[in-house]
């Protein structure tokens, strides 16, 4: 059974607490879906999709770094992302998980969350949810509010994928 508890989402909260609670919930949901699985199981796809739980952990670690550090604060991508030849493999954030074990994938994911939360905290302290990202996307600067809601959307979509993949691996549901 999963070790990661699912955090409570308050029914009444200020905007920052509400959005961060949903983000924390979906982060924990994804982690729970991957817990207790072997490297082979983390590489298992549910055809016709090639998506795997290991790939999803790697992808979302990248997404956290990309949006919270690179886009929001303008920092260069951290390793392992900085050393990737994205032209050779635009989906390397997904594919690189095939070469990693469960401990490494979960540690990388957890470390990305710590860095992302610190970047979010810094932006909240600087200007709150209206803080504009340093790196524009599609010609516009996104607000921290938009970035946080985008992360919730990204996680919610992948949490559904993770549910189906995990059930296909070992029949576990309701994690």
TrEMBL record:
<dbReference type="InterPro" id="IPR034660">
    <property type="entry name" value="DinB/YfiT-like"/>
</dbReference>
<dbReference type="Pfam" id="PF04978">
    <property type="entry name" value="MST"/>
</dbReference>
<protein>
    <submittedName>
        <fullName>DinB superfamily protein</fullName>
    </submittedName>
</protein>
<dbReference type="InterPro" id="IPR007061">
    <property type="entry name" value="MST-like"/>
</dbReference>
């Amino acid at each position: 059974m999963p070790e990661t508890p699912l955090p409570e989402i308050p029914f009444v909260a200020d905007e920052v607490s509400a959005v961060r609670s949903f983000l924390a919930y979906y982060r924990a949901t994804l982690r729970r879906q991957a817990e207790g699985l072997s490297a082979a199981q983390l590489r298992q796809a549910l055809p016709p999709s090639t998506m795997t739980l290991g790939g999803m952990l790697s992808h979302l670690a990248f997404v956290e770094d990309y949006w919270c550090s690179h886009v929001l604060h303008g920092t260069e991508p951290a390793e392992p992302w900085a050393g990737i030849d994205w032209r050779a493999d635009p989906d390397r954030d997904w594919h690189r998980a095939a070469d990693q074990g469960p401990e490494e994938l979960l540690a990388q994911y957890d470390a990305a969350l710590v860095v992302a939360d610190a970047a979010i905290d810094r932006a909240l302290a600087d200007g709150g949810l209206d803080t504009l990202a340093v790196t524009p996307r599609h010609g516009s600067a996104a607000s921290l509010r938009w970035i946080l809601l985008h992360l919730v959307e990204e996680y919610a979509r992948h949490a559904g994928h993770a549910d189906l993949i995990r059930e296909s691996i070992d029949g576990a549901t309701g994690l």
